[in-house]
Amino acid sequence: MRYSLILFLAILPLGCKKIVPEKIHHKQEDNVVLKSKDIQEGDSLIADLKFIKSIEDSCIRTEGVLEDNKEQREDFNSRCRFYKITHDYSVLKGVEEKEQFFRRNKIVYSLDLANKKSDADDYKFVGLCSEKDGENIDSLIVYSYENYIEALVTKGAYFYVKNDRVFVYKFNEDEEGIHSDEWNEYRINKGKFELIKRSLFN
Asked: Which residues, 6 or more positions from 125, have their beta carbon under 8 angstroms from its beta carbon?
């Protein structure tokens, strides 16, 4: 979520966007099979708690978003470590129906619309769901977008999947900058998403 995109949405929301499948890399059935390079595994920086902790202090605006001039915006964008996250998560705002993400040990993991509501003016929640033989096992919200237009606030969640780990980073942006809310690490165990570490901010 780039600064320019967030600001544009502020002044003016779980299933899958039909993504053109890339070449599928078939390995053994027990290994991960990614189906789209647009989804990939997220941004590896999400797994780095030290990096996440550095975001808050580096992403404070001195004048507020509405008072920023061009020079101040460029300075904020260059020093704010949040913008080192370069994976394009915005593609997930187009999720409309379940899309297979990977499979392991005969368990299928898919991205799908999450059954969650928000009082935001515009929002989207996407979950990572697991199922075996057509039976649901578990689900975890890994991406979210909430836009509160009048309050000039957006909230979001980004993820990173690596082997049997899922990392979810929650944050918000207001006139004063970008703030970290929560960071969670989960272990994938037979289709279940088990929380093993949590860091809360603010």
From this structure: 14, 113, 114, 116, 118, 141, 143, 144
Q: Could you tell me if 187 and 164 are in contact, meaning their C-beta atoms sit under 8 angstroms apart?
A: yes
Half-sphere exposure for 174 (CA within 13 Å, toward CB) = 7
CA angle 172, 177, 180 (to 5 degrees): 40
Provide the 10 A C-beta neighbour count for residue 147. 21
Q: Please give the Cα distance from 150 to 122 (Å, whole number).
A: 12
- The three-point CA angle 154-5-83 to 5° equals 85
Q: What average pLDDT is seen over the chain?
A: 82
Q: What's the pLDDT band for 65 if we cut at 50, 70, 90?
A: low
